[in-house]
Structure formats: C-alpha cells, structure tokens
Amino acid sequence: MERSAIDNDPKLEAQFSIEFMSLTSAADRSPADFVKSLIEFEATQRNEKASTLALVLLGKSDISPGAILDAVAAHLEAPDPRVQKIVRRLLDIVDGNCADNPDFSYYLGRIVARRHDKVELEVALTEHMFTLSPSQALRTNVRASIDDGEQRKPFLWAGHVVDDMLWKVRNGFIKTQFGRVKAEDIPPDVPPQLELMAARPEWWARLWVAAVMAQHKELATPELITKLRRDDNELVRKFIEQVQPTPPTP
What we know:
This protein is mainly alpha-helical and 250 residues long. Helices cover 66% and strands 2% of the residues. The protein contains 14 helices and 2 strands; from the N terminus they run ααααααααααββαααα. A hairpin with a 2-residue loop joins strand 1 and strand 2. The longest helix has 22 residues, at 149-170. The chain is globular and about 60 Å long. The protein starts with a helix and ends in a 10-residue tail after the last helix.
C-alpha cells in the first residue's frame, strides 16, 4: 500500500507519524527492538491502513529476513491473536512472500545453529514450515541434518515422488474428483515412499508424511494413521489428527 492511503486522514496521519518515529528509533537500536515495537504497534491498531504501512516500513528497512526470524522467535507463543497475526505476516517476509514456493533458507541456518547447541527449531516455526510447504520443509531438514549425499537420497527421492504426483494433479495429468485423487489413480510408487518415511527414525521425515497426508487425505491409509498417532513426536501426532482415511470413491 502506498503512503497516499493515509494522506487524506489527518488523525491517522498524525497517529502514524508518532508511531513511525517510535519505530524508527527502535530500528536504530536493534532488529529485536524494532520487531518488538512493531508487534506492540500492530497489536493496538484497529486501522488496517496504518498496520500495513508499518510493515511497509519494515520492508524498506535494512533489517534482513534472518534478523526478522531471530527477533520473531521470542513472540511465537504469544497468546494474543493479534500478535499471532503480525507474527505470521512477518514470517511471510522471511519466507519470501511466496506461499507456493517459500524460501526456507533462513530457517536452515537457524536449524543448524540450534542443533549445534543440541536443541531443535522452535515447535511453532517447525509447524509453520511443514504447514506451508511439507516438501520444502523436508528438503530443508535434510540439508540441515545430513551431509553425505548418498544418505540424503532416500529422503529426496521420497519428496520427489510425491511432488511429481502433486505437479501432475495441478497440471491436469492426474484428474481429481471432489478435489481428491481417486485411489486407483494414485501413482503406485507414492504409497511405498510414504511408508518408508513413516518408518524412519528421523522425526522430521515422519512429520513430512503426516503433513502430506493432512493436506492430501487421499494418500492416508488406516495403517499409517494408526502408526503416526502413536508417534513420540508432538507435531507428528498433531498433524495426523487432521487426517481421516478417504472412503473408496464409487
């Protein structure tokens, strides 16, 4: 949105000018201060124009997406839904503002750094990644966890097989009925890859399976649902609870 969106509203202009000065001052201190001030500003706004312009200010700042990600991490578990809304919008910036093909490169660095310290990525960020793009989230965790190219191949191949099916669905090579692929039209190499990944010791591989089935319920089977509902990973169980096996298509 352009600055002209508030130019004809003197009260909004004055209010935003004050907040602009406060946010600019915070930006001069540190990215964390800036994001904290931005979140506080967003949480009190009732006018979407001022709220959006605050994000424009962030977009024009010198703060990198990686710094935004680091700063946002402190606010992931905030109970206020208004804070959660701005956190999601900030993560959109980190993701490259492209939901269809998000850029998780900044998450990669954070995952590697945290695993070096023997801790995993924050649960809320992991959930965000696997909700937005299970395939990108899988590849990011492969890169963060496995250095050897040969050892990466089973995960990359599983992701490729499922992605290939979804590409064919999007482009009309595999037809759908009521938004789902008929069981007989699911490529025969897809279910074995899901089964292989569901049996892996790496929690993120099992999470990928649960996330894929949550988005494409026709790929779910009673056996995989039962197995993953007993998983020791909280997020795997959370994703799989969204799944019920698709009844046979007449």
